[in-house]
Amino acid sequence: MLITTAAAVSLISTALAVPTAAHAAADASPAQHSRVAAGEVGPASLQCNLNLIMCFWTFPDYRSLDNEVQKSLLVPSGLCRRITTGVSDLSTSFWNRTGATQRVWSEANCTGQNFLVHTGVRIPRSPFPVRSVGGV
């Protein structure tokens, strides 16, 4: 599938339309977001099928161009890892399967807006684009 840069930017801009009120979201807790049921089947489950990783998708609802998913191992406390999801290097949906709480950030160097994502929690629509993940 051939896609121009302008088309990719247009797709990403459309997918990233999120309400501004969501920018004040508190830490993501299992009660606030979906926790995965044992044996659940679906695109996210098939693409993020390993424990001890965190998966990131460019678009909401676990979608990316060409179904690419960025997988990251647990980021230890005090460290930062930039998200590389292909065209945009940002994520708007993710799933923490690392076994530990991780903090997602709006900027690539673990700065800006942030919130905690507890283990086992899936975020289908982040309140802001995420560009890095850090350990807690």
Beta fraction = 15-25%
Q: How are strands sequenced across the largest beta sheet?
A: 1-8-5-2-3
Query: Uncertain regions: pLDDT < 50 for 5+ in a row?
Result: 1-26, 28-42
Q: Give the domain tally.
A: 1
Count helical runs: 2
Task: Average the pLDDT over all residues and give the rounded result.
Answer: 74
Radius of gyration: 14 Å
| Oligomer status | single chain
Record field, number of beta strands: 9
Task: Identify the CATH homologous superfamily.
Answer: Crystallins
CATH class, please?
Answer: Mainly Beta
Distance between the termini: 39 Å
| Reported CATH architecture | Sandwich
The string of secondary-structure elements, in order, is HEHEEEEEEEE
Briefly note the structural class of the backbone: alpha+beta
Principal-axes geometry comes out as globular
Notes on the structure:
- The structure is a single chain.
- This protein has 136 residues and is an alpha+beta fold.
- The chain is 12% helix and 24% strand.
- It has helices at 5-15, 43-47; strands at 34-35, 53-57, 70-73, 80-82, 93-96, 102-105, 114-117, 121-123, 132-135.
- Strands 1-8-5-2-3 form a five-stranded antiparallel sheet, with no helix packed on it. The protein has a four-stranded antiparallel sheet with strand order 4-9-6-7, with no helix packed on it.
